[in-house]
Specification:
The complex is a heterodimer.
Chain A (H helix, E strand, L loop, with lengths): L1 E2 L2 E12 L5 H10 L12 E11 L2 E10 L6 H4 L8 E7 L3 H17 L10 E6 L7 H4 L4 H8 L3 E4 L8 H16 L30
Parallel strand pairs in A: 2-4, 2-5, 5-6, 6-7
Antiparallel strand pairs in A: 1-2, 3-4
Chain B lengths: L12 H17 L19 H14 L3 H25 L19 H16 L35 H54 L3 H4 L3 H8 L4 H12 L7 H20 L3 H6 L2 H17 L16 H14 L9 H11 L2 H11 L3 H7 L3 H18 L1 H9 L5 H9 L8 H14 L1 H14 L1 H5 L3 H9 L7 H9 L4 E2 L2 E2 H14 L11
Antiparallel strand pairs in B: 1-2
Helix pairs in contact in B: 2-3, 4-5, 8-19, 9-12, 11-12, 12-13, 12-14, 13-14, 16-17, 16-24, 19-20, 20-23
Classes of the chains: A alpha/beta, B mainly alpha.
């Protein structure tokens, strides 16, 4: 974990949101610095690793879990939430329905995953494809800051994987909050962050328990 | 002017094609020669064109020697008219472009064609053999400039005798070296060509067996050892769709007419969907309609993300509408399953091998198999049974890697979901995926998991060196250079026997355990 006085953090981040909002594109842009309009649909989960030299003493390794967006995969992919330290919830500004699904994704995330200190994991909202002009945010007259506050997002960014807008910024914002939440003094002794009992009424069988 | 060679010669297509590409590119590089060649259909066989290239090349180098070049070109043209006729007569059908008049000796033995072709490529690619042409030009490798041989311009002192001799010697060495290299390359080309021909002959002879012997006696022969072995080798592309259809069967008794009915229903729905796309309307109609329309939208989003590199399923591509139709008809046929991601890949592979209605029939029946139904309905407890059965054979076959994965809590759902949902069509190169499908059609679901173990075996040494995130990345994006020989030998080495229990028995006993009580069998989560 440390090389002399250098600290290394490993964080698992989730990237979730409706199908086709650009989760894979955002990750490819962030990690590989490129963009293609021809990514294949993600089935299950894809992975990426990003190493950040956070400051002189700290290296941050981000494990990005790119999770398939189809609602049907719900029970199957929630297993992947385990031990995540932060999340991006992505929607597509050109498709209002994907924004409507944001609260659903957030509620679902919070119901299945909490930090050791009992708080929800830091989550940043990404309004992707902002290069395409059609601004659903303005059209609906939603005050995004207000929305974030009400729904427990630590921040939001208009992003474009295509034009490389705000993706690094969004990531720095999320990592900053994760580091802050880690130094939160209210630490739970219980290391298992899965709380299956909380939502046993929702899921028929706790999928996480089958995992080892 | 593309008259394809008639069917009996079809199996030499690959070589003809590659030959033809060469020709086309050469034509582009030397467009000034086109008019001389006359109209396309009457275009002469390429070999005589070669001297023209050489001649031109020489003009560029020699500069002052234009008279020589002129002579040479003239020589070439007279030569070509002489060569033209015999060339066409001796090699029927080896020409892709231009009309090949039918001849009585048309169904030529492939070997003869091969020999003729090789003789021809020999003349094309190798330095000119000791023939009449040698009288005109010394052997000259394509890449050397021969400047070294030139006398100095008149205003400079001439080379001394020693210098001239040395140059001569150096030049000879260069030529010898180049000659050696070119001969070596020609041998290599020849070897590749021979292998390719052998492969093609195998495919051609397998095709004959499939068409003449197996397909007419399908039920009687499908389970015989001989057929099963031939099947393992991979199905010839021309019978692939047919064999898949027969092997998958049609338990659901779907007819092409039924497909048309569901397709027209889907089309009506698309129409009304695009007419009333305002959200208020859908909310009134209740959740099920909203779901279905969501399904339609998902299909649209996914189609363009299906084999994007092929550029045929994308909007405007030749198979875009077809894929849309098959998936749309399926959501109308099976609203209980609907559209699930991964389906677009399966439908696409079927469309590439079958006619539309047959592709639909195979698609619906394939998705009706227990394993596919469990996955596409996202029946999580069933999926976990499949993963557990997979792990039984994983531990049995690759104990070291199994422990390595365990130590990172790397569970099969991380990589198997993608593989099983798309039947490997997303993670493996398409031709290799088709070979997996071949044997999947022969052996059933067991082979899907066996293939997964084959992949793990193939990359075992690499995976053992990796940590969690690198394994996960590796397995969700397999190397593109994976070859069928290597993969299939690894799959063949996977034993699907666990203490005398076969896959089906292991799976059945896991299902039984499930009924007798889950608690005993759910391991505590490791962190």
């Amino acid at each position: 974990m440390q090389k002399h006085n250098q600290k290394e953090h490993l964080y698992k981040l989730l990237v979730i949101g409706d199908l086709g909002v650009g989760k894979t594109s955002i990750i490819k842009r962030y990690v590989h610095q490129n963009f293609s309009p021809h990514y294949r649909a993600t089935i299950g989960v894809d992975f990426a690793l990003k190493v950040l030299n956070w400051d002189a003493e700290t290296v941050v390794r981000l494990q990005l879990w790119d999770i398939a967006g189809q609602e049907r995969f719900g029970n199957m992919t929630r297993v992947y939430y385990r031990e995540a330290m932060g999340a991006f919830i992505v929607f597509d500004v050109t498709r209002p329905a994907t924004f409507e699904a944001v609260t659903k994704w957030k509620e679902d995330l919070d119901s299945k995953l909490v930090l050791p200190n009992g708080k929800p994991v830091p989550t940043v909202l990404l309004a992707n494809k902002c290069d395409q002009g059609i601004d659903v945010l303005m059209n609906n007259g939603i005050k995004m800051d207000q929305f974030c506050k009400e729904n427990g997002f630590v921040g939001w960014f208009e992003t474009s994987a295509k034009e490389n807008i705000n993706i690094n910024e969004a990531s720095r914002c999320l990592v900053k909050h994760i580091i802050a939440s880690e130094s939160d003094p209210v630490q739970s002794i219980e290391p298992d962050i899965i709380k299956p009992h909380l939502n046993s009424s929702k899921i028929v069988s706790c999928s996480a328990c089958f995992k080892s | 002017p593309a008259a394809l060679p008639p069917a009996p010669l079809g199996f030499t297509d690959v070589n003809l094609n590659s030959r033809n590409t060469y020709e086309v590119s050469r034509r582009r590089s030397a467009p000034e020669h086109l008019p001389h060649g006359g109209t396309a259909p009457a275009e002469p066989a390429p070999p005589p064109q070669e001297p023209a290239e050489r001649g031109r090349h020489r003009v560029g180098i020699a500069g002052a020697g234009s008279s020589f070049a002129e002579f040479f070109t003239r020589n070439f043209f007279t030569k070509r008219t002489k060569e033209l006729k015999p060339a066409v007569q001796s090699a029927p059908g080896w020409k892709l472009f231009g009309k090949v008049p039918p001849r009585e000796n048309l169904p030529k033995d492939s070997k003869i064609i091969q020999q003729e072709y090789e003789a021809r490529t020999g003349r094309m690619c190798k330095p000119p053999p000791p023939s009449a042409r040698r009288k005109n030009i010394e052997f000259e490798p394509l890449s050397t400039t021969a400047l070294i041989l030139e006398d100095r311009p008149a205003n400079l002192p001439a080379k001394s005798v020693e210098e001239a001799l040395r140059h001569r010697q150096e030049y000879d060495e260069m030529v010898a070296e180049a000659k050696k290299r070119e001969i070596k390359e020609a041998h290599k080309r020849k070897k590749i060509m021979r292998e390719r021909f052998k492969q093609e002959e195998n495919i051609a002879s397998a095709m004959v067996i499939w068409v003449n012997e197996i397909l007419p006696n399908w039920e009687g022969m499908r389970a015989t050892r001989r057929v099963r072995e031939l099947w393992w080798q991979g199905l010839p592309p021309s019978v692939r769709g047919k064999v898949w259809s027969l092997a998958v069967g049609n338990e659901l008794n779907i007819t092409p007419e039924l497909y048309e009915i569901f397709l027209s229903r889907a089309k009506e729905r698309w129409k009304s969907f695009s007419e009333t796309s305002s959200e208020n309307d859908t909310e009134d109609a209740g959740a099920s309609v909203a779901d279905r329309e969501a399904s339609l939208e998902l299909i649209k989003l996914d189609i363009s993300r299906t084999f994007p590199s092929l550029y045929i399923f994308q909007k405007g591509g030749p198979y875009h509408d077809l894929l849309h139709s098959v998936l749309g008809a399926y959501t109308c046929y099976r609203p209980d399953v609907g559209y699930v991601q991964g389906m677009s890949f399966i439908a696409a592979v079927l469309i590439l091998n079958l006619e539309e209605a047959d592709a639909f029939i195979a698609f619906a029946n394939l998705l009706n198999k227990p394993c596919q139904l469990a996955f596409f309905r996202v029946d999580h407890s069933m999926m976990l049974k499949y993963f557990a059965a997979f792990e039984v054979f994983f531990e049995e076959n690759l104990p070291k890697l199994f422990l390595h994965f365990k130590s990172y809590s790397l569970t099969p759902d991380i990589y198997l979901i993608d593989w099983i949902f798309t039947l490997y069509s997303k993670s493996l190169p398409l031709d290799l995926a088709c070979r997996v499908w071949d044997v999947f059609c022969r052996d059933g679901e067991e082979f899907l998991f066996r293939t997964g173990l084959g992949i793990l075996r193939l990359y075992e040494d690499i995976l053992l060196q990796m940590d969690f995130i690198h394994i996960a990345q590796f397995l969700t994006k397999l190397p593109e250079d994976i070859t069928s020989e290597k993969l299939f030998s690894c799959i063949a080495a996977i034993q699907m026997q666990n203490s005398n229990k076969k896959w089906a028995q292991v799976f059945a006993s896991l299902m039984k355990d499930n009924k007798e009580g889950d608690k005993n069998h759910s391991p505590a989560p490791k962190s």
